[in-house]
Protein 1
Amino acid sequence: SAVAEAERTATSSSPAPTGDITNKLKYLFGKEAAETPKDAYHGTAWSVRERLIDSFDKTHEHWKKEDPKFIYYLSAEFLMGRSLTNTVYNLGLEGEYADALRQLGYDMEKVADAERDAALGNGGLGRLAACFLDSIATLDLPGWGYGIRYKYGMFKQVLKNGYQAEQPDIWLTSGNPWEIRRDGLRFEVGFGGRVERKKDGNKEVTVWTPSEKVWAQAYDNPIPGFSTPTTSNLRLWDAQPISEFDLGAFNAGDYDRAMLDRERAEAISAVLYPNDSTPEGKELRLKQQYFFVCASLQDVLSRFKATHGTKFELLPDKACFQLNDTHPTIAVAELMRLLVDVEGLDWDAAWTITTKCLNYTNHTVMPEALEKWPVKVMAKMLPRHMEIIEVINEGWTKWLGGHLKELKAEERAKRISAMSIIHENPWNKEEMLVNMAYLAVVGSSAVNGVAAIHSNIVKDEILNDFYQIFPSKFQNKTNGVTPRRWLAWCNPELASLITETLGSNEWINDTEKLSALRAHASDPTFQKKWAAVKHAKKEKLAALIKKIHGDSVNTNALFDIQIKRIHEYKRQYLNVLSIIWRYKQLKKMTPEQRKKAVPRVCLIGGKAASAYDMAKRIIRLVTAVGDVINKDPETKDLLSLYFLPDYNVTLAETIIPAAELSQHISTAGTEASGTSNMKFQMNGCLIIGTWDGANIEIAEETGVDNVFVFGVRADEINQLRKERKNFKTDPRWDEIMKDIEGGMFGDKDYFKPLVDSVNNMKVGNDWFLVANDFAAYLDAQEEVDKVYKDQSEWLRRSIMYTAGSGKFSSDRTIREYAEDIWHVKPSRPAA
Ligand code: 26M
């Protein structure tokens, strides 16, 4: 009301939102009024931005005064999604801004819907980094993220006749209210050139003269914590040319050449590589990695020097860096270069500091996913770093020799060569490679996996040699997700019900409190309220499906969902095969039998890396099967299948609250953790899954009997792979394969490689053991139907999922990192 608004402005130094929103529109956009939700979004966002900057400044003034130890999260990806709702809620401004927008004739949700996602990441690894920033700020930990300000983020996926097509993600065209360009805050980053030894008095120094230089320009993205005055920062670097253009060439009339430097520089931060799990050995990718690491380390060292001068022995008490996978691992060599070549420290002192400051997180077990750069490529692009890595490797292998001196000479040599950071390419003996994971382990204090089973696989298999040498370096830090974005803000209806039931909203910052919901799990009145929320969320998702596909789906059906990057190891294929089997069963049934069937709406979403041919074929199989079954009048109310194009953070925020069953069905031992499983769990969605990644810990917290667990276990995989040739496939499997090959879903030539990959031992070998788990999966799906028919049992389980999700808050994960690895302590500014 006007009175309340007047009272508010009288007590606050911030401008009244209504006036401020129209003011922003007028002076930043030249608009007299908000004519569209997009206008309203722009006005609102630029207004909220100022509140964010106020809390950012307060926080950083405080931290400057206190000078606490900082954690710097180095990551090539931050999958932030939208910011408006999150910022407004985290800052506690929702009432104010919702009122203001109402006065302007707008509804907050519609306005928020005009924002584009910041999609500077591929999938799990990038979204984890975003959740971590939310928790770091919420826990008042002095910490920043550092990464790349890609001009083009994750590509937009569209379907063309059922096939994936990629379109560029032009996300910055209307400006970005959530960033602050720090004018003048930029660092030089060099590439190529030569390395020389020179005399400086009687000291020999190394001088690297790069042949190419660019600026790294800083952009700050404030990160508001929830229910705290702390606002942290994500600093992203944009690549800019050192000189605007080559004036000589310009004056000579050669305009094209004059622009070449600019293009070459800007290319570095131009696009996010759309690969998830399989690295691409492209030079530009290494350039990106070095670019952001070099700028970030210079930035941190320059701040350190401003307060501590050259007392670098104090650096490990003031700064530590977390390497998000091997992508920023060149930091090991870069920190050595800065300390030795630039600051003049001796090698051993620099090495002690470097290894104290760095820590490495592994996110994948797939051997082909571990980054290795050809020595040739690295020596050309980063000649000094290549030398430094050689020296590190010499020291390392020499030390190893001493450490393993009891071994027989032959055995010792074998072990040393197996652990050498530089080794030959097993598929091309001519080529030498730098193994980035090995460099990260040798250069770090702590190495961690992202779920209990995964950390054990890291210790026992992937990095077992290193584990034997440094057992105490290896840790587990089970992933988590922010309960703000993934429950409280994306599902306010469920959040209100939880708050009302628990008597307070303290669970948002202390998710262990959710366990008190267990006492209500079997209460019919509570179940009824719980079911009503789920149904409302299903209606909302159904409206979205209608908008995308034009079809009305049955909202009384079980909503069965698999959303994640498309990958053979995640086995979307297995899901489709079971849908085909379900369809064939329904077709055989009498109308009487059909009345007893559990209706399902199956949704699959996810992007395939542009060059991942098999993943693209899987997408086409989903759309082709959907085309057949969604048109079948006999069964379409009982079974439908839709592919949801352009799966992203924002879509996930609508899908997850509506899900009743979610699929996490990777070949056991291949999914490091998974994090969407945690988001589904928080929202009371049941899980069908293999004994893999965080599924295991989720099942333990929820009650193993409440989860539909199926399939072979990780420790059986090696043996089963060896025996796969002799595996006798299920007759139902054989039947479905014949259907696909015979053209039941059209496009049979296109599907041939897909069929061969799991059947023809000469071609595929079914590496991910889809056939081995097929029968067990069908059984588990039957069990799902059985439980769904007993709605009170289903709802009891659903409540038990949310109640058991306390462990999977990223607040818990970040507290563990802070205590066991970073040794950073909270430092909260005054309100
Ligand atoms: C590497 C080089 C060049 C281009 C791209 C890459 C690359 C990008 C992303 C490689 C791997 C990438 O991501 C891997 C990833 O997302 N891993 C997932 O990490 C999650 C968070 O820990 C886990 O939950 C998932 O199980 C794991 O698959």
Protein 2
Amino acid sequence: RQARTGGGDAEAGQDAVETARRHLVQPWPMAGSVGAEARALIGEGDGIYITDGNGKRLIDGPAGMWCINVGHRREELAKVMYDQAMQLSYNTPWYTMNAPSAELARRIADHAPGDLSHVFYTTGGSSAVETALRFMQFYNNVRGRPEKKLILSRGGAYHGSTYLAASLNGRPRDRDWMDGADDLVVKLSSPDPFRRPKGMDVAAFADMLVAEFRDRIAEIGAERIGAFVGEPVQASGGVILPPDGYLKRIRAICRDNDILFISDEVVTAFGRLGHVFASGEVFGIDPDMITFAKGVTSGYFPLGGVVISERLLEELRRSNHPDAMFAHGLTYTSHPVGCAVALKNLDILEDEVLAHARAVAPYFQARLKTLEELPLVGEVRGLGLMACVECVADRESKNPLQLDRAVGVRIDAHCHELGLLVRPLINMCVMSPPLTISREQIDDMVAILREGISRTMEDLRREGLW
Ligand code: PMP
């Protein structure tokens, strides 16, 4: 059993790591070590903590991949999965249905902004984005606008690892060595105020972004553009918060040009920003579709989906092509176990976690902000319970320490020693702990991060890299 779980026992943990090096291809590997990577084994989780293969307890700083929203080892979630699997573990979704998927859709629609009324379930975030885009293509085909298919995306974006979703990704390293459907995608600037042109204030920067958006549409022609896809807060790009009012202005331009606005809330939904959905409640926008995943089950089961506007569905129902089929579905669409655990997870969020997340968020942000005292730190930014510590060579040039691209990895290594898992992103560290984190635990997390960054500064100085 130990060899299978890696829990607690250091030797069993080492075996698992060795077996992985021989047989496992890990996600996001480097060519030089693909299929042979040694990654830290995580054996157990409990609340905001995880335990590594050596039995060392760490704060789960990134909550898995922004997903363990209600925390690890929730017995009620484990139990509901067991009970549902014992009652009905699967049904064939293209001619039968199950009750948990319908009930979850009703509750999701209740929380969704505008006229978003129906849910299409997927297996995660990439398949949710893929579904929204294929739905847009189908919608325009049925409306007799087969040329209206281009997709607007932005620098800094991350939308997934399936082919079309990945084609939207705007971080250079996601595309440097990878192909994509470039003929379908138009890239715009990242709405990153930290890296706005020198001497420009944020309001002028917002005007510049909006002007770019309008100009590109005018240049290409709205009749060729099907959708804009954007994260309300660019998560994997480094927790990039757009300038005030930017999202509302982009939303209005999309509406004026019959371009579907797809809000990718794979990270921001289900509590990360204190609400089930952030589009309406935090940013005041009503998208045509919202994609979600991760926090919908707090990572206990692979589930995602798209919430779709009633207006779009109504248009399809009234089309001249009642026989046209949206030929799109996954074996695990509407999975009963996933939907059952999501329902229980939503109960927990509504009953205890959302209010707590809203209450501690200002403290979380204020404590992290104190790290700007450290000279390596260029900026700490964030919203709700997501934040990014961005390191720079110097604050004047904002040079992202390209000489030492692994500064985030160095900070993570020190923090691991000290009891905190950090998500390194080149020169940045992303923090997005389970939403149940207490004020005392936030103090611990920030103290460790401060020490990890201080030790990294010493290393860089000693090695003459900074
Ligand atoms: N969209 C966003 C905004 C994401 O952050 C991610 C994953 N990090 C995805 C989509 C893809 O989700 P998944 O990994 O579940 O396919």
Protein 3
Amino acid sequence: MRKVFEDFPLLRRTVDGHPIIYLDSAATSLKPNAVIDAEANYARSLGANVHRGVSGLSSETTLNYERARRRVASFINTDADLVVFTLNATFAMGMVAHGLPTGSGRRALVSSNSHHSNLLPWRERFDVQFVGSDPLSPLSVEEVCDAVERWRPDVLAINWVSNVNGSVNPVAQICAAVRDLGVVTVVDAAQAIPHLKVNVAALQCDFLVFSGHKMLGPAGTGVLWGRREQLEQLRPLVLGGGTVASVDLGGYELRPLPYRLEPGTPNIGGALGLAAAIDYLDSFEENMLLEHQASLSLEIENIFSSLRGVKIFGPFDGATHLPIVSLLSTVDGISADVLCRTISDSSSVMTRSGLHCAHPIFQHYRQMGGAVRISAYLYNSPAEIRLAADALERAMHPFFGR
Ligand code: PMP
């Protein structure tokens, strides 16, 4: 794998003399210089609004914004007008849950490994049931088909990759299997897109959402993709400038896709940064990225399955899981929060502790004390995983044998 250290300015930062070891990419990724420059370049050299004017700057800004949309579209293999820029994955999911036309008593079947962002939007308008008896193991195609046939939901909302333990649901097989069962399929690809190839033309889902900021893009970027006929029937959550072709005293006419779903001034610099993130990701050979992430996952399995004082939450197989792992403290008197804070303060190892926006999963396993999550990405090395383990061991050492 090409050395990327120099590309990420944050990795040059030290805290108390320690270089930062960033293992919190499942929350948000670091940004390479190319992304920072693209976002700053908007403010520095373009600066105008999009779709509003015919001045030189406005046209140039619009041209760049639409080029960014086409870049996202080519990355996931779709048409540009099916790519809706959003604030983040949560907002994109909310747009689907609130925008789908519903009658009374509509039902949503939600994968049990879901993040709150693929649960709460559904609960607001739908009767929700979970599918997946073991939230930290991949769904089986059979259990999903059984649940769909038994309960006849209108929507099946699946989280592709768990943000708790990096397990991967077989979304392609599931979407293909339920295709003819009359259910709208929605895929949360927030943790998948940083690591896996996402090809919406091959994936037989109806909607797919993801965050730009977890795949090296700027904060405040996300994407909603939908099949044309599905996006067209989505009711816009918010109307206003940018969404309408004409307005009179009695009504309005919506603009075509995707503009009807992008109210107001968008995050223009963010979109340009996201396109730069895609260019950056595409500059690596796909196999290299896959091999590198497999080496991170294998190191996670090797080192944490035998580390004294912590236990991996749920199954973790370095050969099949993405490099996201949650660790439960097994030492009396030392909580996940204390561990996270201690390794941050002592060794500048940045992780995340808590319930990871997945309270039902922690409730299911009665682990409400939470876990320290370690999530690695292309700028991490197996050596950093070992340094994180050393830092954890040092943090726990005074508590052993108490
Ligand atoms: N789904 C999953 C699986 C996630 O991990 C996250 C972020 N932690 C989200 C959705 C929400 O993403 P965003 O912060 O972009 O709204």
